[in-house]
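Researcher: Structure prediction, please.
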Amino acid sequence: CETAINKELVRGWNISPANAFLERRVKSVVASLWKVDDEATSVLMNEFYRGLSRNLDKVDALRAAQEKLSRDPRFSHPFFWGAFVLYGEWK
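Model: Predicted structure follows.
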């Protein structure tokens, strides 16, 4: 949770966890801006990887996953899908 931001609560990190991975030459990171719901995140990540397996760009796969959740009555509120951002390469 909150891997896209650095707060004093994240001990041992001088930068956000997402940026730490990018500094270590990871090509891309999907990170969250706030504490997220476990079930919604599981659904979103499954949809994200499903999109990648269909050869979508990372940004398109994330967008498609977020749009799918936004149409699901259980997760339609942006709280459930809006926290996720893609850092790094999008292709």
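Model: The first strand starts at residue 28 and ends at 32.
Researcher: Thanks, that helps.
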